[in-house]
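#lab-general

N.A. 3:47 PM
ok so I finally got the sequence cleaned up, no stray characters, all 217 residues accounted for. can someone with queue access submit it? mine expired

B.Y. 3:52 PM
send it over

N.A. 3:53 PM
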Amino acid sequence: MGKSVQLRGYRYSVYNRIVQVALHEKGVSYSTDEVNPFTSEIPETYLKRQPFGRVPVLTHGEFDVYETTAIVRYLNAAFDGPELIPADAKTIARSAQVISILDNYGYRPMIRQVFAHRIFGPSVGEQTDESEIEAGVEASRIVLSALNTIVAEGVVLNGQNFTIADCHLAPMIAYFIQAPEGADSLKNQSALFDWWAMVSERASIRETAPGLPKCQD
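B.Y. 4:20 PM
back already:
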């Protein structure tokens, strides 16, 4: 019997979903353990696995690994299934470039500003900050434009070879376009828009959609 796989994380975390997408693409069965990184009382048992208190952590048997890109790379190497990490130089470079763009320039405006303030916050009873949404939309324009150029090139995000770049980008776009402002922004980037139309139909994307929390009275 193979070693058990457990994903410890927050179901609404975009980084948690990135790992879930990779798990689905590789055909790996796994269990989950819900850990909310935004609570003031993160379990000590979790902090022993992830000293920074972020999510997610993947546990495979006795082996723990954190940091999303490291987890996805581990899954690709440790399990059979479709190859998520490209072998040629240009595709390696572009995949790494997409992930870096998203982590450094895309996550905050697209997720923490646009999605969080327009969609997630109101779902849990928080007030919307229109200035944050406006700033996020503005900052996301150059991100989407840069990604659109990469998609149009056809080396990665090409609808043919599903790679770690797709794993990383799809959950962020899925959240971003729930906001009307995000959906409108995506429509202005034709290559990226077409990529999303294709990739959003994959089982790994449809089956990992976390929904939204319900506001507690």
